[in-house]
Fold this sequence. Notes:
Radius of gyration: 25 Å
Distance between the termini: 90 Å
Low-confidence stretches: none
Helix content: 40-55%
Shape: elongated
Structural class: mainly alpha
Order of helices and strands: HHHHEHHEEH
Strand content: 5-15%
Amino acid sequence: MVDIHEIIAGHKPRKNANDETINTRKEHLVPTTSKIPDLFFDEILVDYKLNRIEVLVLMYLYRRVWCRPNLYKEFGISQLMAHTEIAQNLKISIDDIYHSLRKLEELGFIATIRSGQYFVRKYFSRENDEKYGQTYDDFEV
């Protein structure tokens, strides 16, 4: 006589379509996000006619200072090893990086502390920083 336990052990369960979907979802990566003030989209992009490269460079520096772990966050400063780091990460020529940095400094969004070290305003302009109460612990450019 055949034991019921042997029959059950030898029987493979049917695959449920929902199980495959759940397993597939678990394999996907979850994207990271960065918190950028709506002020950037509502005012800065509208009032200042920044080109694509200037926006990329500003967002790169902004994310380095305000959206990623950063020892100098309270001062609004980002430490980079070299300009080539930005150029490689953004896939932009070094000359375009230099032009963008100069333009962003002229607009007051950033300031160069020394080569590879940048002060980045949290609310993009001195007026907005004052409006929203942003201070930089005695560091002001």
